[in-house]
Specification:
The protein is about 35% helix and about 10% strand. With about 250 residues, the chain is of the alpha+beta class. The strands form 2 sheets. Strands 2-1-5-3-4 form a 5-stranded mixed β-sheet. A two-stranded antiparallel sheet has the order 6-7. Helix 6 packs across helix 8. The chain is elongated, with a radius of gyration of 20 Å.
């Protein structure tokens, strides 16, 4: 496959950025998207140019580091992570636009790399549970109803990639925050901090500069792990319940 790549190049957060055009040839349909970028970078290095900076780690679709907007879609045309996107999703002669996440709360570090530490601060604001120390409790000591366990696992699948923010026209982090709130609040182990958790995490999300949610649904559509849109509704109910309790 021969492809034309239009890649966002930006030296740092303060420098102006622009799209740069590159031609790559000999791309196999079995390559992953990141392997294709590796091929581009090898050619740039051999030509004496600076390689394109992009985030990646596990390349197995479980860490969320590979955050790219491809032809206007977060992670590309398939509902998966960028590292699990393969070049058979494209055609010979295609022009592919590759950009970083676009959100004020995700400032560009360089080229396609953005700073997503705002997500870490949201988790730090309330993403913990009280746990007794000492010997491990018996597995059946705290019984969890099957629907609650299923819901907790569903929300815990969030990998914090930020696709929900990149896809949202408002740059909202509500889907991410709701996943982190709900996967703890639905379990009995998360009950002691249930109210403070949702209040603190939502407040931190607002302080980080993410946009407001208007339930357009783009976040759930782009989420590679399928976090459902009703997760946001569940968190809103938790927030209203906790807010009323605090006001009393």
């Amino acid at each position: 496959m021969k492809l034309t790549l239009r890649v966002w190049r930006q030296q740092n957060a303060e420098a102006p950025g622009a799209m740069a055009t590159y031609e790559v040839d000999g791309i196999s349909q079995d390559m992953s998207f990141l392997e294709m970028l590796d091929t581009l970078n090898e050619e740039l290095i051999l030509g004496g140019d600076e390689p394109v900076a992009f985030d990646h780690d596990c390349r197995e679709g479980i860490c969320g580091a590979c955050s790219l907007v491809i032809n206007g879609d977060a992670h590309g045309p398939e509902r998966t992570t960028t590292c699990q996107l393969h070049m058979r999703s494209f055609h010979d002669g295609d022009t592919i636009d590759i950009e970083p996440w676009r959100a004020s709360a995700f400032p560009v570090v360089k080229d396609l790399v953005v700073d997503r530490s705002s997500f870490d601060r949201i988790i730090q604001a309330g993403g913990y549970i009280s746990a007794p120390t000492g010997t491990a409790p018996d597995a059946h000591a705290t019984q969890v109803p099957k629907p609650d366990a299923d819901s907790a696992f569903e929300h815990a699948e969030c990998i914090g990639c930020g696709a929900c923010v990149a896809a949202c026209p408002n740059g909202s982090a509500m889907l991410f925050t709701s996943a982190k709130v709900n996967h703890l609040n639905v379990l009995p182990q998360g009950a002691p901090e249930r109210e403070t958790r949702v209040l603190d995490m939502v407040a931190t999300m607002d302080d980080e500069g993410f946009g407001g949610c208007t339930l357009t649904g783009e976040c759930a559509t782009a989420c590679p792990k399928g976090i459902p849109l009703p997760s946001i509704t569940a968190m809103n109910k938790e927030w209203l319940r906790a807010n009323r309790k605090v006001r009393r």
